[in-house]
Amino acid sequence: MENQTNPSVMEQDAKTLRQIRVEKLLQRQADGNDPYQITKYNVTAKANLIKKSYAQTEEQFIQEANGDEEVLQQKLNVLKEQPVSIAGRIMSWRDMGRANFIDVRDDTDRIQVYVRMNDIGKDNFKEFKKWDIGDIVGVKGYVFRTKKGEISIHAQEITMLSKSLLPLPEKWHGLKDQDTRYRQRYLDLIVNPDVKKTFVTRSQILREIRAYLDNIGYLEVETPVLLPLQIAAAARPFVTHHNTLDMDMFLRIETELNLKKLIVGGFDRVYEVGRIFRNEGMDPSHNPEFTSIEMYQAYTDYHGMMDLIEDMYRTLAKKICGNDIISYQGTDIHLGEPWERLTMVEAVRKYAGVDYNTWETDEDARKCAKEKGIDVEEGNNATKGHVLIAFFDAFVEEQLIQPTIIYDYPVENSPLAKRKPENPAFTERFEYFIYAREMGNAFSELNDPIDQKARFVKQVEVRRAMGDTTGEVDEDFITALEYGMPPTGGLGLGLDRLVMLLTDSASIRDVLLFPTMRPLPKYGQQSTDQELSENK
Q: Containing H/E element for 20?
């Protein structure tokens, strides 16, 4: 019991077990059986297919035998002449003296292996009994069903392919500490098979997105990750240094500008699956390094992108989940039904009971915010647009559980979007929300180079006023626009949040193989995350 509650005792036990295993390895190496010298193993079958194929063949034999048990056994004995070879990790062990049962897991499933001294030889069996749970082995033998009804492999040869020097987590308690699971994802994948399913599904989602976009004429492209300047956007970049050029460079915070340059160059439909880096906070839905998918289509607007994203999500849900109604954190999400579409003004009126159209001046808006107890970041400089955004954040977003498109954003927080001709205070921009979480962002892209440069300059001035001198105007992008960019619809979505939705994962760390984590304290360093946070 003490070992389960005292970390120092548990650590000491782990060191002792490791030393025992190291000694076993050294002895094998001294005997000329170094597993690390094995460079390959002939795998002829996978665990899941072995079990599926045997069950189908057995059913066929049962039907052919027509109730004659002797005939059935004769047919099943034929399978003994059809050996299979698998490789995987020993996950459990049941010692029955001269016969042992081990469970071996490969990358598809687990399968039971029956190892008997009479089949592999006395010396080999004696050596086999020294092996440990966690060792990686190769097994050659024939498939059969045990008296208890489990499809298994009767081993005729068994080979250690790699020695596990560290013990796996105890069987019944498993690996449940979240911090350890994220830091040691390899161990998480070993002992929690369902975790692997999440990442297999992630790969399938990405493949289906690519297929969807490719089938409607989009071209996948790649653009630079390292950029020579930092635009004056709100997101903070990571900074690095190029030694040869002796200049600072910035990891990209978006793929937008380069993709729109390609629209200028004549590609009518482009998209990129890109790694994005933002030097900002972390929470269950944010990681400083994440994957975005941005797509741009010439000769359409934000309404065209609304139709595209609805259809793409509906298609993905059916392909991945088998239904356009999915369960997320206990709530049914209806992706197949037409998504509700509200302007930001309509949404604030619906959920906050405040009507933007009654504000005649910016002062009216600020007064309304004060009366409702809404804190507006811009303070006395807040415009009606700033106040509208503050009301949306305070009252609306948390209500948007079912898929909802919010469109026509104030120009104040949409520097790259095209203004609405009939109401220049708003832009042709939308975001879509599911489970009270923003999932993607889209625009009728601004293609007026004069207007675009004026907005860039204003962004830089705002940053300068806040004491930040790093932001710059991307003059090359302005030059590209001056050659002429056609009317274009653009949309960006976070792949990680989409994977969370379709795999029912609560945290972004559950869908990232190696999420960003604070390094563990080094030897002699006792500071914890909490202490560091308090000191900060």
A: helix 7-30
Q: Are 76 and 58 in contact (CB under 8 A)?
A: yes
CB neighbour list of residue 445: distance below 8 Å, 6 or more residues apart: 260, 296, 416, 417, 418, 485, 487, 488, 489, 490
Radius of gyration of the chain (CA): 30
Give the separation between CA 452 and CA 411, rounded to whole angstroms. 12
Q: Tell me the C-alpha distance between 459 and 412, whole Å.
A: 10
Sign of CA dihedral 277, 281, 285, 287: positive
pTM for the model stands at 0.88
Query: What is d(CA 52, CA 69) in angstroms, rounded to the nearest whole number?
Result: 22
- Closest-CA residue to 387 (of 368, 371, 406): 368
Query: How far is the C-alpha of 158 from the C-alpha of 163, rounded, in Å?
Result: 14
Name every residue whose Cβ is closer than 8 Å to that of residue 450 and which is 6 or more positions away in sequence: none
CA dihedral 114, 118, 122, 124 (to 10 degrees): -40
**C-alpha distances in Å from residue 520, one per residue of 108, 179, 525:** 33, 10, 9
Residue that is written with structure tokens 């300047």 in the block: 229
Distance CA 302, CA 295 (A): 12
The CA distance from 504 to 332, in Å, is: 11
CA atoms lying within 13 Å on the CB side of residue 118:
2
Q: Write the pLDDT tens digit of every residue in 225-235.
A: 999 888 756 67
Per cent of the chain over pLDDT 90 is 79
Backbone angles phi, psi at 474, to 5 degrees: -80, 90
Helical H runs in 171-222?
178-183, 185-191, 193-215
CA distance 177 to 155: 36
Distance CA 139, CA 41 (A): 10
- Given its phi and psi angles, is residue 330 left (phi above 0), alpha (psi -120 to 50 degrees) or beta? left
**Locus of tokens 């109604």:** 325
Phi (first) and psi of residue 504, to 5 degrees? 55, 45
Instruction: Write the pLDDT tens digit of every residue in 124-168.
Output: 999 999 999 999 999 999 999 999 999 999 999 999 999 999 999
Q: Give per-residue burial for 61-84: e unless 16+ CB within 10 Å, then b.
A: beeebeeeeeebeebbeebeeebb
H-run or E-run covering 276: strand 269-277
Q: Which residues sit opposite 247 in a β-bridge? A: 242
